């Protein structure tokens, strides 16, 4: 079976409090591949890129642009 030519992802992000004394917050979230329903929890944009890259590299997509 050929791999799909279209991939859909749902990215959900939220601010999570880290330290009440310094009022620092950190972005957290998850990205889900719609077709497979695989999900990865993320803490930065690089985590999102890595998750999505795995699906696009199978189609030889250039993800660096």
Notes on the structure:
The chain has a 3-stranded antiparallel beta sheet, with helices on one face. The protein is elongated and about 55 Å long. The chain contains 1 helix and 3 strands; from the N terminus they run βββα. Helices cover 20% and strands 38% of the residues. It has one domain (9-57). The protein has 65 residues and is α+β, with helices and mostly antiparallel strands. The protein has one helix at residues 45-57, and strands spanning 9-19, 24-33, 39-42.
Span of the ends, CA to CA: 28 Å
Strand content: 35-45%
- Estimate nothing, just give the exact number of structural domains: 1
Shape: elongated
Largest beta-sheet details: 3 strands, antiparallel
What value does the average pLDDT take? Answer: 84
Brief overview:
By secondary structure, the chain is an alpha+beta fold. It has 1 helix and 3 strands, in the order βββα.
Secondary structure elements and their pairing?
Elements: E1 9-19, E2 24-33, E3 39-42, H1 45-57
Antiparallel strand pairs: 1-2, 2-3
Structure keywords:
single chain, 65 residues, alpha+beta, three-stranded antiparallel sheet, 38% strand
């Amino acid at each position: 079976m050929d791999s799909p030519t279209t991939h859909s992802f749902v990215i959900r992000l939220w601010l999570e409090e880290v330290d009440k004394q310094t009022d620092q917050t950190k972005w957290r979230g998850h990205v889900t591949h719609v077709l497979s329903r695989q999900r990865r929890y993320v803490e930065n944009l690089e985590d999102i890129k890595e998750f999505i890259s795995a699906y696009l590299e199978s189609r030889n997509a250039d993800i660096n642009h």
